Task: structure prediction
Amino acid sequence: AQSVAQPEDQVNVAEGNPLTVKCTYSVSGNPYLFWYVQYPNRGLQFLLKYITGDNLVKGSYGFEAEFNKSQTSFHLKKPSALVSDSALYFCAVRDPYSSASKIIFGSGTRLSIRP
Amino acid sequence: KAGVTQTPRYLIKTRGQQVTLSCSPISGHRSVSWYQQTPGQGLQFLFEYFSETQRNKGNFPGRFSGRQFSNSRSEMNVSTLELGDSALYLCASSLGELAHEQFFGPGTRLTVL
Result:
């Protein structure tokens, strides 16, 4: 069965510093991986995805994520955090080879950027 | 291009009642998924529809049902509401299946009293 874990409920970073939001997954084959962001009182917005190819994926708002197959991780990163990056971030995984393939979301990580 | 729309945005019901939520996907999108978001359980998958067919279903009781119409619009129904059904219900549409990113609506906030 596929699963995804976000080990940190909250991440606190000072503005201008690099940030990392962690995500690990478990699927039987090669996964499709996604990151979404949710701002207060709004739906989720797509940030980036990994399907195949280059392990480093670049997405919206200066975010990027690195697919690491050996560590089964897909951490979200940004070189320099902005206060406006403060939001709830969700990692998601889909096993494309499963007959009942569906997108499973992690529990979310609240990112707080202090000025 | 208009985004995903969900109606109503807010709903208050009492235990035992039933409710129908509606979702209109982005024009041209054929896949619609529904999720339940609660503070304690996070984002839980409910169903996924593609071309009027239910492709996947999450681990929810039979009180939760859904359907998709030929124009890709989707509805979900919850019968015999329980207090624990209070949540934000999110609908997401995508162009196709599997590899495509999902576009989320603003959600319907359901409160069960």
Q: What stands out?
A: The interface with chain A takes residues 4, 33, 35, 42-43, 45, 48, 55-56, 58, 90, 92, 98-99, 101-107 of chain B (CB under 8 Å).
